[in-house]
Amino acid sequence: xxxxxxxLGTMGGAMAANAARAGFEVxxxxxxxxxxxxxxxxxxxxxxxxxxxxxxxxxxxxxxxDTPDVEAVLFGSRGVADGIAAGSLVVDMxxxxxxxxxxxxxxxxxxxxxxxxxPVSGGSEGARKGTLSIFVGGAAADLERAxxxxxxLGTTITHVGPIGSGQAAKAVNQVILxxxxxxxxxxxxxxxxxxxxxxxxxxxLSGGAAQSWVLANRSxxxxxxxxxxxxxxALHRKDLGIALQLARETGAALPVAAICEALEAGLVGRxxxxxxxxxxxxxxxxxxxLPG
Amino acid sequence: xxxxxxxLGTMGGAMAANAARAGFEVxxxxxxxxxxxxxxxxxxxxxxxxxxxxxxxxxxxxxxxDTPDVEAVLFGSRGVADGIAAGSLVVDMxxxxxxxxxxxxxxxxxxxxxxxxxPVSGGSEGARKGTLSIFVGGAAADLERAxxxxxxLGTTITHVGPIGSGQAAKAVNQVILxxxxxxxxxxxxxxxxxxxxxxxxxxxLSGGAAQSWVLANRSxxxxxxxxxxxxxxALHRKDLGIALQLARETGAALPVAAICEALEAGLVGRxxxxxxxxxxxxxxxxxxxLPG
Lengths: 292, 292
Prior knowledge:
Two copies of one chain form a homodimer. The first copy, chain A, has 292 residues and is of the alpha/beta class. Chain A has helices at residues 10-21, 34-38, 50-55, 67-75, 80-83, 98-109, 123-129, 140-150, 165-193, 198-205, 213-224, 233-250, 255-269, 280-287, and strands spanning 2-6, 25-29, 45-46, 59-62, 89-92, 114-117, 120-121, 132-137, 154-161. Chain A has two domains: 2-162, Rossmann fold, CATH 3.40.50; 168-287, N-(1-d-carboxylethyl)-l-norvaline Dehydrogenase, domain 2 (Orthogonal Bundle), CATH 1.10.1040. Helix content of chain A is 53%, strand content 14%. A six-stranded parallel sheet of chain A has the order 3-2-1-4-5-6, sandwiched between helices. In chain A, α1 runs parallel beside α7 (123-129) and α9 packs across α11. The longest helix of chain A is centred in the middle third of the chain and has 29 residues, at 165-193. The first copy, chain A, is elongated, with a radius of gyration of 20 Å.
């Protein structure tokens, strides 16, 4: 099957390489051309525009940064919509607003083109290893068309509802993470201020109700005040912005997610946007008089 | 070994019964006498006062509600201090303030009596099954004296530091839970408002970074708006009050724990204090126009 990729960043580059190595005929475009050269050895062929990618592909996968980027590569000059044949399928794996997703799908449908939203979790490591979790919104039949290539990118593929639902599911994921990260950050800071042995305490807590992936995998970073990637603060802040917009549209009140987004905006403004998201602990540490 | 229990509530009653069934000679006192009768068949003998329990025991275990209760059963009229022999050991398994714990230990030390603080997590189910997690503060040698009986009460016994450290560790546990419960509650409410299939979504999220004991075991309650015990809102609120007091004393700033304590105080005031702590979701649901 002929598969196109638009966007070859840390995530998209690794995903395109995985699809090509699995035997799909992969054509790709990226704003920065050197990213295309980087995956040529994996069998990915470059194209001159998103339109050219679409013209060479039955399924076009998008993996770009935010809502305006998806709109630009779909409907901008020499965008996917300029080159795509009726009957093709667009799979947007970026994390963007659910409402914009429904709008883009409607505009593609006018040209006879189907769309899935399929944002992922699992980060750069999951992209490299092909172990992403993929939340899919759209028609079940379209998911079945895309499934063979999605299975080269991720290990858990969940159809969560109609178009836009994948983005809403991703938003829920980021909201749960906001509370969990802040809870663990506050706990670790209290433990440090109270003079406890943090490492031993985390081991003791891990068998009980406080257990979480964040406690097991990120509390050490918060204690050491070192935040290698991971998943960038700036991206989690962007995703929480999407979640809070969805919350406004649907009438959900999310106080902790709102606080987390505000604290992360401060971190981005202080040049900590490229830290791992566990760096929300910097703020709790600083508020408590610890180096942050 | 002769072991005394002061306080036979849901937790203490089950714990005294476990110790007696394991072969310890258990003497117990409770404010409400019927609670003593309830564990007589397990081999627990009643005594007329905390002083009488102490007179009959080498190790006296306290399991009462809050800091003033511990002070009353230790130093009030016919309290433990009136009957205890020098060389004995008090093990306070209640959840109370770390600073008061250090004060009580100092006052007992004047009488030649050692003390451990050993609060637990694992709830009423853990107390019944003898699978509690126990966070122990105090001298290592005193823990070794108490270990045989503690091993009949819990499966994880962690020595976290000097006297008061067990209470501080428990406080950290409750702070982490505050963020995790609110994060999951906000995520579930957003999922409901966005029309997602919550059960399927929770399954999809459970393989990733949002994974936690709370997500796995309490998100269903939040979705159904049913909050059977579990661990009472009123007790988590009390414990967060202790944690926030410790935070004030040590200079830790815990914004999410403070919000959670405030929301729980509201639930207690509206007769939801006996719900499971997952009922913090009631507040997020109500703020978002869902039945709460």
